[in-house]
Automatic annotation (TrEMBL):
Keyword Methyltransferase part of the UniProt annotation: yes
Domain Methyltransferase as annotated: residue spans: 45-140
Descriptive protein name: Class I SAM-dependent methyltransferase
tRNA processing found in the keyword field: no
Alphabetical list of Pfam families matching this protein: Methyltransf_25
InterPro entries in the cross-refs: Methyltransf_25, SAM-dependent_MTases_sf
Family annotation (PANTHER family): TRANS-ACONITATE 2-METHYLTRANSFERASE, TRANS-ACONITATE 2-METHYLTRANSFERASE-RELATED
Family matches, as Gene3D superfamilies: Vaccinia Virus protein VP39 (3.40.50.150)
SUPFAM superfamilies: S-adenosyl-L-methionine-dependent methyltransferases
The entry's keywords: Methyltransferase, Transferase
Length: 260
């Protein structure tokens, strides 16, 4: 899997991070994440699947101590070139090897953004949640941004293209998703699946849709030249964010779990 994301590393910021849609979705995540950070005593943060380091840098600039990990050495290399913050450390780590790389460390919060966990199978996700519990301090927080199975934007997109076979593709296992020209096996999880897998070690604290009205990033070419439409969708998104039941229909959702 790391080789696939190595290929995506060079173009990821241009294809998502710096796009109109990418910025809007990331700001939605930050708005919810900021509230979580302010309400809890957070000092040490572990980021899983950090990509090119955009979120890790943002967290470190809020004066938290951040360890940011990714399976791809090229993603880590791109991230390291962006900053020299003393309270931020990037490491190449395979999520399936946790907690082995951190034998003597505990974290107040573990964070994974924009579908990094969708690269796991259901069994692997369950094991990750168990391992994450062991890495957290008492009452530690797990903040995950995951892609669900019922994204309405995607279903409408494939209907418009008359690609009826793909309308409900997210309901299948090991769906092949295109990431900057590279095919990645992807699994989609609705909020109830995640809370069920986590129920032995965590209780749910927060659930919010991310991208119910704001479209998926692959529609960036269409929306880039329509700023007024994007502005309207952004306003509607702020309203949608108040309704957790919309989470399984959004492009992503943010779920916060607290260690029992």
């Amino acid at each position: 899997m790391n080789a696939s994301f190595d290929i995506a590393a060079a173009n990821y910021d241009n294809s998502f991070t710096h796009t109109v849609i990418g910025k809007l979705q990331r700001n939605l995540v930050y708005r919810h994440l900021r509230g979580i950070l302010e309400e809890n005593r957070i000092q040490n943060i572990l980021e899983i699947n950090c990509g090119t380091g955009e979120d890790a840098i943002w967290l470190a600039k809020q004066n938290y101590t951040v360890t940011a990990t990714d399976i791809s050495p090229l993603m880590v290399a791109v991230a390291e070139k962006k900053t020299n913050l003393e309270n931020l450390n990037f490491r190449q780590v395979d999520i399936n090897r946790l907690p082995q790389p951190f034998p003597d460390e505990k974290f107040d919060l573990i964070f994974s953004n924009f579908g990094g966990l969708n690269c796991l199978t259901k069994t692997e996700l369950g094991q990750f949640l168990k391992n994450a519990s062991g890495l957290l301090t008492q009452n530690g927080q797990l903040v995950l941004v995951i892609m669900p199975k019922n994204t309405l934007w995607e279903q409408l997109y494939f209907l418009a293209k008359a690609d009826f076979k793909s309308v409900f593709r997210r309901k299948k296992e090991n769906v092949v998703a295109n990431v900057d020209g590279e095919n990645i096996k992807t699994n989609y999880f609705n909020p109830k699946e995640v809370t069920h897998l986590a129920s032995a070690d965590f209780r749910i604290r927060l659930l919010k849709p991310i991208g119910f009205f704001i479209p998926p990033s692959y529609l960036e070419p269409f929306f880039r030249s329509r700023p007024k439409l994007v502005s309207v969708l952004h306003s509607l998104e702020n309203t949608a964010g108040k309704h957790s039941f919309l989470s399984k229909y959004a492009d992503h959702y943010l779920i916060t779990l607290q260690k029992k």
